[in-house]
Request: fold
Amino acid sequence: PPTLLIHSNSRINLSHSELKSLNELEKRLDILIRPADKGGSIVVMSTDKYNLSIMSQLNDKDCYTPLIHNPLKQHEVEIDQLLEKALHRGWITVKHPVCPMFYGLPKIHKSLIDPPLRPIVSSIGCLTEPLSQYLDFFLKKYVYKDFASPQSSLSLAEK
Reply:
């Protein structure tokens, strides 16, 4: 099945032929199928336009600074020293980190033609994820929960 459907929490509402067509579209290298930034829609866009938009964002010197060298190893050593104690105490487990993934979600609520992309940096599985989880566990009690950090949009709406 198409990867977009694998990650969906809802049941598939497509016919067999529609599902087959979507699967064929996903195999094409000239287009990308992405979830929209808002509204739950699916966006089909040119791979070239998507890549140009992503590179334009990454090359924006007001937002990002090019690295002279890859600091991952240096950060890994520094964080390893901090996490060693937590590992021995059983607070965290060993995982092999990956580089964070930068991607964009089309903002079709802004424009249906060449929509801008919301930049996303997914840190799942990256070097700092265990430390972030550890800090989150201890810092939650210091955050005003009713306003600053709702657990979900539903919990925010209920308040």
Observations:
- The beta strands are 31-35, 42-46, 101-106, 117-122.
- The chain is about 40% helix and 15% strand.
